[in-house]
Design a protein that fits this description.
- With 656 residues, the chain is α/β, with parallel strands linked by helices.
- The protein folds into 2 domains: 21-29 and 413-654, 3-Layer(aba) Sandwich (Rossmann fold), CATH 3.40.50.1820; 90-376, Alpha/Beta hydrolase fold, catalytic domain (Rossmann fold).
- Helix content is 37%, strand content 19%.
- The protein has 20 helices and 17 strands.
- The chain has helices spanning 2-14, 33-56, 60-78, 148-155, 186-199, 204-219, 237-248, 264-270, 314-330, 350-365, 390-393, 400-410, 412-419, 423-434, 496-505, 542-551, 555-572, 589-599, 616-620, 641-647; strands at residues 90-96, 100-110, 113-122, 129-135, 159-163, 225-235, 254-258, 302-307, 337-342, 443-453, 456-465, 471-478, 487-492, 514-518, 581-586, 603-609, 652-654.
- The strands form 2 sheets. The protein has a 9-stranded mixed sheet with strand order 1-2-3-5-4-6-7-8-9, sandwiched between helices. An 8-stranded mixed sheet has the order 10-11-12-14-13-15-16-17, sandwiched between helices.
- Helix 4 (148-155) links the parallel strand 4 and strand 5 (159-163).
- The longest helix has 24 residues, at 33-56.
Length: 656
């Protein structure tokens, strides 16, 4: 029996393709290597940020300058936001509570962008009172039928406007004709909705912050609200929105961030990126850490509320709060920042709610008396619309998709102007968007194996380039190669092993073409393990795609560098140099190959299959998989994929 097993193993080893090694070309086997490579960028960015912060904390002037710099960089990250036009706000109904009244409010944050909200106000109001914006956590119901925190605030003399965010409550965007959600919930919808904004140069976090800022605009139209006493708070996903609202709107005089605050570095190391509303591209490269996101409040009052056993990392939260204390101390207001951690997880138990109301009573009411308690309350008939969805209710309502398409159409002349530039200027603009900076270092080809096959000689290489992730390639030189034979580079998002195994299974022959199979980073040998990529994000490589955006290196740009690396390798290898080079690229490799063809004339032909043909399709229908892998932030302000086809002068074509 042992002899039979040994013979079987020997036969398997001799089969074409030697499938037992997965066509390995890298000199290492480490499934987390590429993610760790990206994280090294974030470690360097965070170290630079920490050094700058430490120096700033030495003086009040230094800290004021540091915070001004953070605010300036955050303003750039927010991108272009809609104009602040008429709100056209109205109260459509009221609901009576115990000691408070809930007004059902609808306003337009932008033309056709309807926002539904509940305004909780004390029942008996004398003069102008303080008010807060509350942002709900992630749930399909959004503002829901009642908020324990808003009830508590209203019973203690503070009005609260609780806003439905984009993608939640009565503002779902990916719905059917009956208003039913087409995804699994808010976190999925936010992630999918984020892509159109990214392509247009904005992001979902910025758009949500804008809508919440317009809630402050609404509060200030009311005669019963004191414009000098405005606060905001939120927990979980609401804590995220509170964080970004703090950075956007300096009218906030008191704030609370709950169940979100932590070190960005720790978060990305431990659990990876969250959904599409919980980060903005380039935060890392802008040296924005978790504490920086809320430093715009300083020296105004700010409290952090969390649970010690939350999945939001507690150690990262403690580290971030140390920075907040140093900043507030340098500014002469150490008493204006506080933290409280419950012996709980991702929750708001009674002690957390007491901390919340105590903080706002202290700073907005000037009152340290014990808070008025409240019992749980849920209203009935709390919808602001008859249909339950603003996009079904109002004839002039514009969905996220309609907004995005209108914005893309408005940019048509800008894209035409970009593409009319001289080729050198176009290339420079494309490189800028892809974040490909400066000349690339030389390529070092390290041999990792070779063998003789029927009809071919196979060579394997690890292509090293200083500062870049290694590219594994398998080169097969046919016996019938001729002086004029071409080199064909084959790329697939399934990895080169899938292509090679199919090639070997059909015992393919060659017409003399030298074949080069390569794995672009994050694919094949360096693919991120499935367990680190939650299915709810609709992307098999969500972690590396989102983290790459965070550090300021879009995944398509990194992969274009890999294609250029393979081209340089072909130029340097005596067996390949001087030959015409063409590319066949599948799936997510398609847009990468299209960019490379425009940037590098050495590619004589790029044939794409199963490939995205226009980013417009993402705007029309965000219900698609793996979109974030194809995202280049702001690209639609300059060009679309059909523009690359035209710029290539006929060198780019589609096989299907």
């Amino acid at each position: 029996m042992k002899r039979l097993l040994a013979a079987a193993l020997l036969c398997a080893a001799l089969l074409p393709g030697a499938a037992q090694d997965g066509y390995q070309a890298l000199r290492f086997r480490q499934p987390l290597a590429y993610h760790q490579y990206i994280m090294r960028d974030l470690h360097r960015q965070t170290a630079a940020r920490d050094a700058a912060f430490a120096e700033a904390a030495r003086s009040r002037t230094g800290m004021e300058q540091y915070i001004a710099g953070v605010r300036s960089r955050m303003a750039e990250l927010f991108g272009e936001l809609p104009e602040r036009g008429p709100l056209n706000a109205r109260t459509v109904a009221t609901v009576q509570g115990d000691g408070f009244v809930v007004e059902k409010v609808i306003y337009q944050s932008a033309p056709g962008r309807y926002v539904t909200a509940h305004l909780y106000r004390p029942e008996k109001v004398r003069g102008r009172i303080p008010a807060c914006v509350e942002m709900p956590g992630h749930s399909a119901t959004g503002k829901g039928n009642g908020s324990a925190q808003a009830v508590l605030m209203a019973r203690n003399g503070i009005a609260v406007i609780l806003v439905d965010p984009l993608g939640q409550g009565e503002r779902m965007q990916l719905i059917d004709a009956q208003g039913q959600d087409l995804t699994r919930g808010a976190t999925t919808e936010h992630t999918l909705l984020g892509v159109p904004y990214l392509l247009l140069g904005s992001n979902l976090a910025a758009q949500q912050a804008f809508d919440n800022s317009r809630a402050i605009d609404y509060l200030l139209t009311r005669k019963d609200i004191d414009p000098q006493r405005i606060g905001c708070y939120g927990f979980s996903g609401g804590g995220t929105m509170a964080t970004y609202l703090i950075a956007l709107d300096d009218r906030i005089q008191c704030a609370c961030v709950g169940l979100f605050f932590s070190s960005r570095l720790r978060t990305l190391e431990l659990i990876g990126p969250s959904d599409g509303c919980q980060q903005m591209p380039f935060e890392g490269s802008a040296q924005i850490e978790g504490a920086d996101l809320v430093l715009a409040m300083a020296p105004r009052p700010l409290i952090i509320l969390d649970g010690k056993y939350d999945f939001v990392d507690h150690w990262g939260a403690l580290q971030g709060f140390e920075d907040l204390k140093k900043a507030y101390t340098a500014l002469g207001a150490p008493e204006a920042v506080s933290q409280y951690y419950a012996e709980d997880g991702h929750a708001t138990p009674p002690d957390v709610q007491r901390q919340l109301i105590g903080w706002f009573r202290r700073w907005l009411l000037g009152d340290s008396a014990p808070a008025v308690e409240s019992a749980p309350w849920r209203g009935s008939d709390m919808l602001c619309t008859a249909s339950g969805q603003v996009n079904l209710e109002f004839r002039d309502a514009r969905s996220t998709m309609q907004e995005a398409l209108a914005a893309m159409d408005a940019l048509a002349s800008a894209r035409e102007a970009f593409c009319r530039q001289a080729p050198q200027a176009v290339s420079a603009g494309i490189r800028r968007l892809l974040q490909i900076e400066g000349p690339l270092a030389p390529v070092q080809a390290v041999a990792s194996g070779s063998r003789e096959l029927r009809g071919f000689t196979e060579h394997r290489f690890q292509l090293n380039r200083e500062g870049e992730f290694p590219v594994p390639v398998v080169v097969r030189i046919p016996e019938n190669v001729r002086p004029g034979s071409a080199v064909e580079i084959r790329l697939s998002d399934q990895g080169k092993a899938a292509l090679l195994s199919e090639f070997d299974r059909y015992d393919a022959t060659s017409d003399g073409t030298i074949l080069v199979w390569a794995d672009l980073r994050g694919m094949g040998e360096s693919a991120d393990p499935t367990e680190y990529n939650l299915l709810k994000y609709w992307n098999k490589e969500y972690r590396i795609a989102a983290t790459s955006l965070h550090v300021g290196r879009p995944l398509p740009g990194q992969r274009v560098v890999d294609v250029l690396t393979v081209l340089d390798f072909c130029d340097a290898d005596a067996r390949l140099q001087g030959r015409p080079v063409r590319i066949r690229a599948e799936g997510l490799c398609g847009p990468v190959a299209a960019h490379a063809a425009v940037l590098d004339a050495r590619i004589t032909q790029a044939t794409l299959s199963r490939s995205l043909r226009s980013w417009r399709s993402y705007l029309e229908n965000p219900l698609q998989y793996d979109m974030l892998s194809n995202v280049v932030p702001g690209v639609l302000t300059c060009y679309d994929l059909p523009d690359l086809v035209r710029l290539s002068g006929g060198r780019i074509s589609y096989a299907d």
